[in-house]
């Protein structure tokens, strides 16, 4: 069974495509994370965890969830990181989590997808670069699926000690002090649909007078910005200048390659909104 969290669609795409290639089930963990639902998840096939990379690790809320949830049935687990170019110590942390759960860790690998985080100094990627990343990641899924199907371990680069020494203390400090919410706001395009509230993994958004209000607990996942059906959510002037990212705006770049992809996802029914194309 493929388990995943996705904010703006990159990881969802990789997880659902991989599940299709393996004829496996795919489960979006968003609802479970939001509701602190740690009830048992059982699978006859190996577990495959697909996760984005935030600050050189997997999202801290996802790490905490995986530590607590009970996974039964097959004891083997694979881990696939979706990064914008550097996965940091994500694979190392996944290995540590699942070995502590007495599971058979079958290795990890990294797939590079377009960046969804334009806040700060990060530049907007060109349409050509976005296309190159999506196609490259998609083409690597066949080899990953073959390894999993044949019970082979996934291989990734070695994580050096200095990476652990830098990231382990740095990540929680950055997550606590460098992810402010004061610059989020909804423009007059907001229709009060509540989509942003539904996709926030930390339950940090509430709707008041048909407008979103942000609390102080934020992971800067960009789910609220990237999934707004009317592009109403902004972050200061940054997103007005740089635009926003959602995988659905770029999936046409695959042509017919993923046509027919399906998701056996019982947790989160999804609508496809017509959105403005960026990049």
From TrEMBL:
Transmembrane annotation, as ranges: none
Positions with biased composition (Basic and acidic residues): 255-270
Superkingdom of the source species: Bacteria
Keywords: 4Fe-4S, Iron, Iron-sulfur, Metal-binding
Stored InterPro entries: 4Fe4S_Fe-S-bd, 4Fe4S_Fe_S_CS, EFR1-like, Flavodoxin_CS, Flavoprotein-like_sf, PSI_iron-sulfur_center
Keyword Iron-sulfur: yes
Region of interest called Disordered, as start-end residue ranges on this chain: 255-279
Span of domain 4Fe-4S ferredoxin-type: 181-210, 218-238
Cross-referenced Pfam families: Fer4_9
Listed Gene3D superfamilies: 3.30.70.20, 3.40.50.360
GO terms of molecular function: 4 iron, 4 sulfur cluster binding; electron transfer activity; FMN binding; metal ion binding
Record carries keyword Iron-sulfur: yes
Cofactor(s) the record lists: [4Fe-4S] cluster
Function: Ferredoxins are iron-sulfur proteins that transfer electrons in a wide variety of metabolic reactions.
NCBIfam families: ferrodoxin_EFR1 (NF038196)
Protein name in the entry: Ferredoxin
UniProt source species: Ruminococcus flavefaciens 007c
């Amino acid at each position: 069974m493929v388990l995943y969290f996705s904010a703006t669609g990159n990881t969802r795409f990789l997880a659902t495509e991989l599940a299709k290639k393996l004829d496996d089930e795919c489960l979006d963990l968003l609802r479970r994370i939001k509701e602190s639902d740690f009830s048992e998840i059982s699978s006859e096939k190996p577990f495959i965890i697909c996760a984005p990379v935030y600050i050189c690790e997997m999202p801290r809320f996802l790490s905490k969830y995986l530590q607590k949830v009970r996974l039964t049935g097959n004891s083997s687990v694979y881990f696939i990181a979706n990064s914008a170019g550097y996965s940091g110590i994500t694979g190392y942390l996944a290995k540590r989590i699942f070995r502590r759960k007495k599971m058979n860790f079958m290795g990890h690998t990294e797939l590079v997808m377009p960046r969804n985080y334009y806040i700060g100094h990060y530049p907007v990627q060109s349409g050509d670069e976005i296309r190159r990343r999506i196609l490259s990641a998609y083409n690597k899924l066949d080899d990953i699926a073959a390894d999993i199907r044949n019970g082979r371990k996934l291989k990734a680069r070695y994580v050096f000690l200095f990476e652990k020494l830098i990231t382990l203390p740095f990540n929680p400090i950055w997550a606590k002090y460098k992810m402010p919410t004061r610059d989020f706001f909804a423009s007059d395009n907001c229709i009060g649909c509540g989509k942003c509230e539904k996709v926030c993994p930390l339950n940090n958004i509430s709707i008041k007078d048909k407008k979103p209000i942000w609390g102080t607990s934020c992971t800067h996942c960009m789910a609220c910005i990237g999934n707004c059906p009317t592009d109403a959510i902004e972050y200061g002037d940054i997103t007005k200048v740089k635009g926003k990212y959602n995988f659905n705006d770029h999936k046409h770049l695959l042509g017919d390659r993923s046509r027919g992809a399906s998701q056996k996802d019982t947790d989160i029914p999804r609508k496809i909104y017509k959105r403005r194309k960026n990049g």
